[in-house]
Amino acid sequence: MESKLVQVIFFFLFVTVSSAYTPFQYFMHVQFWPAAECQAIGGVNKCHIMQPSHLQFTIHGLWPANKSSSSSLTCMGDAFNVNGMDDALKKELLSSWWDWKKGKHVKFWQREYDKHGKCSDNVFPKTEYFRKTLATYHDFDIAQILQKANIVPQPLQPKMSLYKLYSIDQITKAIESETGEHSVNIRCYQQMQKQSKKLIYLAKSPSAMMNLAITELTVIQAKQPVASFSAQTRKLYQV
């Protein structure tokens, strides 16, 4: 069975809010790999990959949250209004925050704002929510951070045993060392049924692909815009 990555998200817990007027305690800044999402739905031809964003993490959103996962937020802010955005802001959003699946970028921003942004209306009102999200995104260049930690693409090899492996702990520490006191969480979604071992592919289209398992990460080069391959017979990568 070949297993593919659906989504990888990085969580940055970077703001703590204690005001009695806010329904949340902190924000999560969420980034993901759009090319990996494309791989999961059948390839790059079914996606709206925007150059040069295929070589970088892109924004999923800025999510107010509570420490208790069972806590739900009641958002009372105003609904999204694209007319409040100037052209410069729209252009910047399109460079790093876009709808990879349908290409309906404004609707994607609307969904994120109406679901999450309204909860922080008294902290980042209206377009300030988007500006803060962009500022945080630029502060945390994940690809650059990983490269600095020597977590880099490797040449294609004929078998899995020839690749250098990186633990998830290494990746987490590499990011946290650059983000100060901000917490990082790597969440992996994968298409596997009744599997005791997770095998996940993270595509960095078109020049590289990351193969992420429960405890190890391999970064390899890929010739195709979005690549996947069957796991070799290794205990860690049971299929």
UniProtKB/TrEMBL annotation:
GO terms for cellular component: extracellular region. One of its GO terms (molecular function) is hydrolase activity. SUPFAM superfamilies: Ribonuclease Rh-like. One of its GO terms (biological process) is RNA catabolic process. It comes from the Eukaryota. It holds the Pfam family Ribonuclease_T2. Keywords: Endonuclease, Glycoprotein, Hydrolase, Lyase, Nuclease, Signal. Self-incompatibility (SI) is the inherited ability of a flowering plant to prevent self-fertilization by discriminating between self and non-self pollen during pollination. In many species, self-incompatibility is controlled by the single, multiallelic locus S. This is Ribonuclease S-7-like.
